[in-house]
């Protein structure tokens, strides 16, 4: 699942610029009318009205001239000119609006001019800081796309240099795969060569890979097609040089793109509109806050009971695998004895799941209070902290353990192509009655392909019903 990168970039910078013009306007109003500012605001609604006009005009300017083109490649003077042009057009439109609504005579020229000067310097300074911060911390940002480059030894220097020079704000090249030689262990511009033709798929399964850029000029089309299909099965977005657009690869979305200086065709499961991503995250934040308040109340009751029955920590944490292979710590109320992880190996022969998950009826590692909190799903409540942090979503796919993930085949990884969830299709489909891991993978992939906010809400409501009736829980 992806979202158009320019949409996120423009939205963030736009919000910052709105914040700047707002600070400038009210600061200059305070200076102009002090000490009578409270009286002015209370008696004259036009103070707020004119601010809204300024925000509206700036929004129109953004929509019409798109001032953030090549934002992350701009040097000082290009940035200076772009911000000057934006504020000049905004000022001219604001003056036009004031004239048309017959407000120009009463408009304070001091506020008008100083607000635009403040806005200009705010943009100049904040854009420079924002650009520096994003580019510097790209490797550590959770929304940065981790990209592999697949190319040949004679093109690797050119390709890597071009992509890095482009300074794409949410892209970081984590490794290079060379298909015609085994150069594993070497580096190109401090980026490691991590695999060759024989080992690249195994590397992509085990490591964090969001996107793959492929430039192999001499490769036969059928080989390229097979390679794209294999990455697609993992849920990885594939960018391919443009002369191979007609490849018959089954993909949810196929569109023109650019990586560095190279025109590409991008194969992705689907492209999600920005507003849908924002709404899903807002729903997660709201749900996370409400869930943590409930968790705090439940902790007061459950905490002493858990500690009295079995010495050890109140909360259980475990490394899990999230979106495209990212590792994070999941939190639960402890429902097992403290040595449960060590005893798991002894019980593997009694695993009731067909595949890579572990589940066992009457697991001897579970405490008495643990059976109750599992049956009622109370043990999952601390994961609202994971939801609030962004490691998880309210609805998604089950995050596997590290040892489960290490046994994945390529197509299994596709279920990790979106943020894992506190609940999901599997949880509301009688999870204890489903013993085939391949069936779970199929359900998860179908959910990802047909994702919608409406379906998430339906799953949440069904989850509440399942929890209240303790359906499918052991």
Automatic annotation (TrEMBL):
The protein's topology relative to the membrane is: Multi-pass membrane protein
Q: Which Pfam families match?
A: Bac_transf, CoA_binding_3
UniProt-annotated location(s) = Membrane
- Membrane-spanning intervals of the chain: 12-28, 48-65, 86-101, 107-130, 285-306
Family label: Belongs to the bacterial sugar transferase family.
List the top taxonomic levels of the source: Bacteria, Bacillati, Bacillota, Clostridia, Lachnospirales
What's a single GO CC term here? membrane
The keyword Protease belongs to this UniProt entry's keyword annotation: no
Task: Kindly state which keywords UniProt assigns to this record, in alphabetical order.
Answer: Membrane, Transferase, Transmembrane, Transmembrane helix
- Per the record, the major location class is membrane
**Which organism's genome codes for this protein?**
Anaerostipes hadrus
Protein name (database record)? Putative colanic biosynthesis UDP-glucose lipid carrier transferase
Question: Listed GO molecular functions?
Answer: phosphotransferase activity, for other substituted phosphate groups
Query: Which segments constitute the Bacterial sugar transferase domain?
Result: 280-468
